[in-house]
Automatic annotation (TrEMBL):
GO cellular component, one term: plasma membrane
Any one Gene Ontology molecular-function term assigned to this protein's record: interleukin-17 receptor activity
One matching Pfam family: IL17_R_N
Superkingdom of the organism of origin: Eukaryota
Transmembrane segments: 468-488
Signal peptide: 1-20
Domain SEFIR: 512-664
Keyword RNA-binding: no
The protein's name in its UniProt record: Interleukin-17 receptor C isoform X1
Organism: Bos indicus
Subcellular location: Cell membrane; Membrane
Segments of this protein annotated with the region Disordered: 692-716
Major location (coarse): membrane
InterPro entries in the cross-refs: IL-17_rcpt-like, IL-17_rcpt_C/E_N, SEFIR_dom
Length: 716
């Protein structure tokens, strides 16, 4: 038996405010005016066309405010409909252009004249009422005696009974004059449903509403619908967002009674329940019972995702609106706390699911976005690290400008903003004069600028190099002395040299360049060829990553996440991404390039090449590929002109004929001399030959079984 959590009824609501409504008898619409005015309701509907604005010829009567009231229009005692009564408040606007016209108007209304004329100010007021899917307009004729005509003064109001509307509907009301002398007034109102009105016994559509109880079942939530077995009804769960339209989450047509269990992890504050009988023109009633539930608020922050959009945009994705603020902060390279940039930059209220921008001139990898509530920091993401690279050892300077063009500079540090020309014992204070010269000479990057101040990012690498120059010089001198002492002991020279050679080899392996190998798994023989190439490259001072050896990680993370992590690590370490073209890879590239607007077809979930195209192609299209990517293809498998032209912005090598150039490009600055490079190319060519031969061996021939490189043990 579940413990009652809170009971909700769609007829009463959670904390109901029950309204007792006035009754209007009869089907006819009517109009009445405040004392002193006369009004008339024109028969029949009028066209809902406001027309264009025109200039007033003198004082005119215009609507100034709309006011609504709910009433019941009853045909019988228990047969009523919800109706909206509208009151239009009126005022006189404008002045006489010609004083003589004003004088004539006043004399015509003078009661002391022997034959006074009934001078008055007349206006045609249009009321437009829209409640999806219908629209209805009425025309009211109002006359104001000349004695009440005072420009800028209110003269009274006219009340219209009434516009019929459905329970729970959203209605829009406009009011304007014909001709139109000013912008039309408008009013939008959400009408209550059966749960908020004392109408259950008067409106027949409220009689058949299903009753809903919400209770706790351990950690989960139960929705119990108490209806008869024959009654059919619709049930919908949706996210009611303040910003944007309603987002349906779950919908079903059911037959009562029903008990539905919701997982506690699915609860969010804007999750609402809507239920209605499956009958023509039935009333739909909604409740949102989880607005104050602590679990729902925790789930909302767990589901929120902060997405950074280059160059300077960001977006917070969440199912519901979030009462939060976003700020910028500066993340130092040493990994300390992110230093807030407020002030000088302002805080900004968060609008979920909408792209926002911060007022920076340029991006910097040390700048981060923080999203927080009044209680604590909720989310933090550093800006554009994928496109701008890793964080830098830069010093952020805050320039404050005052009146008369006098300003000051301070460096943002964990202890606060340190003035550059101060006696503090911080790094910024010790280098204050040099940093000031860097700003004046244009060596610092300006991130933000306005009349009150600016932000500068100044590189600190050169000062670190100067600091350690003497230390390195001392180390070199010490090494030279030790080397001379070793030469004095000739009997032990060979042993020391052998040990030194082993240390150099170990150091070279530790400093080897990273290479990420991407390919399309066309068939088993081509995978063996890729494995042979990867194994041969591992014998060089290269650290090779290939999905063929990481199948377990691919299954756990997914191909796109695995590639994104490998690509980021490779590029951050100064490595290179190798695109190995084959007939299948070329076909995939052309498919993406020719039909970029539609979703690509489904591929093998372990195919990192297909998953990586969504990240690789933007680098080539935006000119970021040179220096990061290298292309290659095998002579006998693909003609040279088959590689798409887009990828020729980086070096593309034919294997094995261009192996020396290919290996030299992969090793970069660590490449050996040409003779040694040719020897290594010959070693790689010999290692590739068996796998190349198997690619052209007829199917079923001996030796075509699936093979692995020595490092492929973690493939599954």
């Amino acid at each position: 038996m579940p413990v009652p959590w809170f009971l909700l009824s769609l007829a009463l609501g959670r904390n109901p405010v029950v309204l007792s409504l006035e009754r209007v008898v009869g089907p006819q619409d009517t109009a009445r005016c405040s004392p002193g005015l006369s009004c008339h309701l024109w028969d029949g509907d009028v066209l809902c066309l406001p027309g264009s604005l025109v200039s007033a010829p003198g004082p005119v009567l215009v609507p100034t405010r709309l006011q609504t009231e709910l009433v019941l229009r009853c045909h019988e005692e228990t047969d009523c409909d919800l109706c909206v009564r509208v009151a239009v408040h009126l005022a006189v606007q404008g002045y006489w252009e010609d004083p003589e016209d004003e004088e004539k108007f006043r004399r015509a209304a003078d009661p002391e004249l022997e034959e006074p004329r009934n001078a008055s100010l007349q206006a045609h007021i249009v009321l437009s009422f829209q409640a999806y899917p219908t629209a209805h307009c009425v025309l009211l004729e109002v006359q104001v005696p000349a004695a009440l005509v005072q420009p800028g003064q209110s003269v009274g109001s006219v009340v219209f009974d009434c516009f019929e509307a459905a329970l729970g509907a959203e209605v829009q009301i406009w009011s304007y004059t014909q001709p139109r002398y000013q912008k039309e007034l408008n009013l939008t109102q959400q009408l209550p449903d059966c749960r908020g009105l004392e109408v259950q016994d008067n409106i027949q559509s409220c009689w058949a509403l299903p009753w809903l109880n919400v209770s706790a079942d351990g950690e989960d939530v139960r929705l119990v619908l108490d209806v008869s077995e024959e009654q059919r009804f619709g049930l919908s769960l949706y996210w009611n967002q303040v910003q944007g339209p309603i987002k349906p989450w779950w919908h079903s047509n059911l037959t009562g009674p029903q008990t539905i269990t919701l997982n506690h992890t699915d609860l969010v504050p804007c999750l609402c329940i809507q239920v209605w009988p499956l009958e023509p023109d039935s009333v739909r009633t909604s409740i949102c019972p989880f607005r104050e539930d602590p679990r729902a608020h925790r789930n909302l922050w767990r589901a929120a995702r902060l997405q950074l959009l280059p160059p300077l945009g960001w977006r917070l994705d969440a199912p519901c609106s979030l009462p939060a603020e976003a700020t910028l902060c500066w993340q130092p390279l040493d990994g300390g706390p992110c230093l807030s940039l407020v002030p000088p930059l302002p805080r900004e209220n968060v609008t979920v699911n909408k792209v926002l921008e911060f007022p920076l001139l340029k991006g910097h990898p040390n700048v981060c976005v923080q999203v927080s509530t009044w209680e604590k920091l909720q989310l933090q993401e550093c800006l554009w690290a994928d496109s701008l690279g890793p964080r830098k050892d830069d010093m952020l300077l805050v320039e404050t400008r005052g009146p008369q063009d006098n300003g000051s500079l301070c460096a943002l540090e964990p202890s606060g903003c340190t003035p550059l020309l101060s006696r503090a014992s911080t790094r910024a204070a010790r280098l204050g004069e040099q940093l000031l010269q860097d700003v004046q000479s244009g060596q610092c990057l300006q991130l933000w600028d306005n009349d009150l101040g600016a932000l500068w990012a100044c590189p600190m690498d050169k000062y670190i190099h100067q600091r350690w120059a003497l230390v390195w010089l001392a180390c070199l001198l010490l090494a030279a002395v030790l080397f001379l002492l070793l030469l004095l002991k000739m009997s032990r020279v060979k042993g020391w040299l052998r040990l030194l050679k082993e240390n150099i080899r170990a150091g070279a392996a530790a400093r080897s360049r990273a290479a990420l190998l991407l390919y399309s798994a066309d068939d088993a023989s081509f995978e063996r060829l890729v494995g042979a190439l990867a194994s041969a490259l591992c014998q060089l001072p290269l650290r090779v990553a290939v999905d063929l050896w990481s199948r377990r990680d691919l299954s756990a993370q997914g191909a796109l996440a695995w590639f994104h992590a490998q690509r980021r690590q490779t590029l951050q370490e100064g490595g290179v991404v190798v695109l190995l073209f084959s007939p299948g890879a070329v076909a995939l590239c052309r498919e993406w390039l020719q039909d970029a607007t539609s979703a690509p077809r489904a591929h093998d979930p372990h195919d990192a090449f297909a998953a990586s195209l969504s990240c690789v192609l933007p680098d080539f299209l935006q000119g970021r590929a040179p220096g990061r990517y290298v292309g290659a293809y095998f002579d006998k498998l693909l003609p040279a002109d088959a590689v798409p032209a887009l990828f020729r912005s980086v070096p593309v090598f034919s294997l094995p004929s261009q192996l020396p150039d290919f290996l030299g490009t992969l090793q970069g600055s660590a490449a050996p001399r040409p003779r040694r490079l040719a020897e290594r190319a010959e070693q790689v060519s010999r290692a590739l030959q068996p796998a190349l031969d198997s690619c052209f061996r007829p199917p079923g021939a001996p030796g075509t079984g699936r093979g692995m490189g020595p490092e492929a043990g973690d493939r599954t």
